[in-house]
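Writing this down once: the sequence line spells out the residues, with the fold written below as integer tokens. I am pasting one below:
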Amino acid sequence: MTRLGRGLEALIRTGPESIDKTTGITTIKIEHIIPNRFQPRKRFDQEKLQELANSLKENGIIQPIIVTKRDDTQYEIIAGERRFEASKLAGFYEIPVIIRSVSPKEQLQFAIIENVQREDLNAIEEAKAYQQLHDEFELTHSQISDIVGKDRATISNFIRLLKLTEPIQLLILEGKLSPGHARAILQIDENYQEDFAKQIIKEEFSVRKAEIEARKIKQHGFKPSSKTESFKTSPDVFSDYEYRLMERFKTKIKISEKNQKGKISIYYSNRREFYALIKELESEKHE
């Protein structure tokens, strides 16, 4: 009879939460949970989110989401927003949570730390999160570095990305420019930055190549050039392409030119490396 009573109680429960006395884990109806207002991560990969939702359907939520109580019926996420979004996709009615009482500053800190540790934040999202800690909570770059476990210079370099114009920041958010490219862009006059960003993408500059070109722009101003022109006039470009080819084929490569004619030498140490190179070159031909 007692067991039936507990079952009926669960069936007619109208409140937002229930607590498992055995585990101490609280279960909350998903409709009473809201996203973290300080969440630095603005974009979720929908394909990966669906994969997680499929996994949750199969295995359930193994790790509870951490929330803080806003009022009698509403809870705000501290950590686990990706699991929360995937739970909604999976069609869950309620999810397991751990309730913690935290300040707004701690809420932001937890959200940043969770994403940084998972390497889920885009560079711009991470930069904005650090800037928010600095602006709203008056934390120094050194204090932020202690919180997230990165050195102070790294924090400062991230925040510097916010000096770039919105169009360039969007290119970083979209993954078309890396943080390394962005730092190269920051070296030049802001009047040239957007054009230089477009050139980096169009001509597929490596970070090293972008840094070389940034130094030239600082000295002579921005002059758009074709790949052919820059290749035959600048020895630095040979070095850059050698580096890119060595990264691609994992062996020493030398480019030499005279009177606009030249050769590309590929080195190998043994027959095993030779056949590996041949296989790689054959695969390049068919791509």
